[in-house]
Amino acid sequence: MKPEKLLEMLHTAEKLKNITRHCDTSIGRRESVAEHSWRLALMSYWIAEEFPNLDATKIMKMCLIHDLGECFTGDIPVFDKTDADEEKEEALLQQWIETIPEKLREEMSNLFLEMKEQKTEEAKVFKALDGMEAILQHNEADISTWEDHEYDLQLTYCCDRVTFSPYLESIRNAIKSETIEKIQKERN
User: Fold this and answer.
1) How many Cα atoms are found within 13 Å in the side-chain-facing hemisphere of 131?
2) Pairing of strands 20-24, 30-32
3) Whole-structure pTM over 0.90, yes or no?
């Protein structure tokens, strides 16, 4: 890849440092999409040994690229995102992917398709981690930043994504325990 093309791609990806998500960090500032993707990739790295038969590198790549479409649309919280929003994001992302070098274009297109179809164990692990990272971040944020509907969402979101793996279920249950503790502290 020519250095100029690499820089162009990195300049596009840099937008994710500036695009904020719905959630705050533990110090009270908005989390960026890049920060979410970074910690998601870190989660996948740290749990890789729990899934020795899976391609850990593939999962990490999914974590790193999964929100690149938000470079073009911004972040829309899961509870506000419509099918039309999804389609727009996918179309703009695909337009951009068509401009990158062929080998990367093919690999990234395949990864995005795999994530969307949710047929492989790698894609399922990625999807579960993606949801759990968001819940974890909400637990780390001050509870005053939660919207009313998020109290229930924190307890139910992503539970269906972990049912294929006892290990991931145990992580989700641990996060749920933190959520319950946080809510109880706020109410007392």
Assistant:
1) 23
2) antiparallel
3) yes
Structure tokens at 171: 């992580």
Whether the Cβ atoms of residue 128 and residue 158 lie closer than 8 Å to each other: yes
How far is residue 182's CA from residue 188's CA, in Å, rounded to a whole number?
A: 10
Q: What DSSP element (H or E) covers 31?
A: strand 30-32
* Sign of the dihedral through C-alpha 24, 45, 11, 115: negative
Residue carrying structure tokens 């910690």: 39
What long-range pairs does 118-122 form, CB within 8 A, spacing at least 24? Answer: 121/51, 121/53, 121/54, 121/164, 122/54, 122/55, 122/58, 122/59, 122/62
- State the DSSP code for 128: H
Which of the 8 DSSP states describes residue 30?
E
What pLDDT, in 10s, does the model give residues 121-171?
999 999 999 999 999 999 999 999 999 999 999 999 999 999 999 999 999
Model confidence over 5-44: pLDDT tens digits? 999 999 999 999 999 999 999 999 999 999 999 999 999 9
Largest CA distance in the chain: 59
Beta bridge partners of 24: 30
Angle at 37 between CA 108 and CA 87, to 5 degrees: 55
